[in-house]
């Protein structure tokens, strides 16, 4: 009976010690190549988002609206480099919408588009000032 107790005690002691060591030796779910691909894809998307915002900011109509609103477009353009994450994605989506509405050769900008443009410029500058 005493041998059984010793055996159970040793077995339980070993079983409590082994799981953390076994977990530490588990293979990773994603290998390095997959992680590198994910980082590269994220970087490409962020670069594309920044390019879309810069393209919108380079339009003459946008520069005219910004000048009337007293917003420095050069400062907004340099601030685009500091955007990231959700802020970058949201502003890029809005910039694409503005760019698409102007891409068809539309020479006049409606009030709602003007409001979006001013809002985007102000949002970019606020985000940069906060960060």
Structure characterization notes:
- The protein is mainly α and 131 residues long.
- It has one domain (34-130).
- Helices cover 81% and strands 0% of the residues.
- The chain has helices at residues 2-24, 32-58, 60-69, 73-79, 85-103, 111-130.
- α2 crosses α5 (85-103), α4 (73-79) packs across α6 and α5 (85-103) packs antiparallel against α6.
- The termini are far apart.
- The mean pLDDT is 77.
> From the alpha-carbon coordinates, what is the Rg to the nearest angstrom?
28 Å
Uncertain runs: none
Mean pLDDT: 77
Helix content: over 70%
Task: Please provide the ordered H/E string of secondary-structure elements.
Answer: HHHHHH
The number of E-state strands comes to 0
Category from helices, strands and their pairing: mainly alpha
Short description:
This protein is mostly helical and 131 residues long. It contains six helices and no strands. The mean pLDDT is 77.
